[in-house]
Amino acid sequence: MKLDKFDKEILRVLQKDATISMAELSQKVGLSHTPCWRRVKKLESQGIIKQKVTILDHKKLNLGVSVFIYVSIKNHDSVSLTAFEKAVQDIHEIVECHTTSGDKDYLLKVIVESVEEYEKLLKSKLTQLPCVDHISSTFALKQVKNTTELPL
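Predicted structure:
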């Protein structure tokens, strides 16, 4: 879909605050209420707006340890990859999973309470994932930037 300046501005505003009222949104983007509402509905129906969520502060929830994990898989057939990807969905501490290029197959982002909790997770779940050959973990020391806003 080709987005015009109004669509992009609607998306910019909604990325900052999805709870904004339609009246406020239409005022900020320079459209009247009904055309603005129609555009939002169109962006939703086309899947550009996937969902609206509440972003939580993981540190205030005592989940202060972020771990990035490279995973190499033993077999690269579709059955093995599908089994791994399906199993990852059931581990709540894994908040992101990406396939990667290069010598590693996946990059996972895990958020846990402590290093000890990560060790338990590693031993009880991560090493038990289907077809895992090698796991390499890196702990984040400080988060310098974190945004969900896409550059429009």
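Summary: The helical segments are 5-16, 22-29, 33-45, 78-88, 115-124.
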